[in-house]
Amino acid sequence: MVRRNDDHIEPKLGRARSKGKSPQKFISRVLRAASKAGPVSRGGFNAKRRLGAAQGRGQVVARLVGDRLNATSRRVAVKARLLNLKRAVPGSAIAHLKYIERDGVTPDGKRGRAYGRDEDLLDVGEFEKRGALDRHQFRFIVSPEDGAEFGDLKPFTRDLMAQMELAGC
User: Looking at the domain assignment, is residue 47 inside a domain?
Assistant: First the structure.
């Protein structure tokens, strides 16, 4: 293969120009972002890969529960939120309940319905009156991994809440 001189490109660099921002600010932002990324070892970023149970919230529980998991265990994602009603915006509790009962929530596109421990249809207004003097409201989003295979999630959710009551959660 013949090498031609016109294939070789030599860029001519001009002076660095900043458009209103100091280069020092950019360097300090890069250094700050690098420090947030954590230490770098010889193997590069994340050279020591940890298991999910070894980091973040719930690591102790994950280690303890991990021994009891078996083939019939079900993985469930639970998102919990504790709302202090004295600090919350007035009407936020009833707005949340109305959000639960909005249109298009069910798999067939119908309106969602609130339900309780014993009754299948719960009056949202009555529920809000009953909890008006409560200091806190606990909101849970429960999502089983195989939730699409369930016909109705009410029995599963009621069983989960009964287990939480027994555990004193």
Answer: no
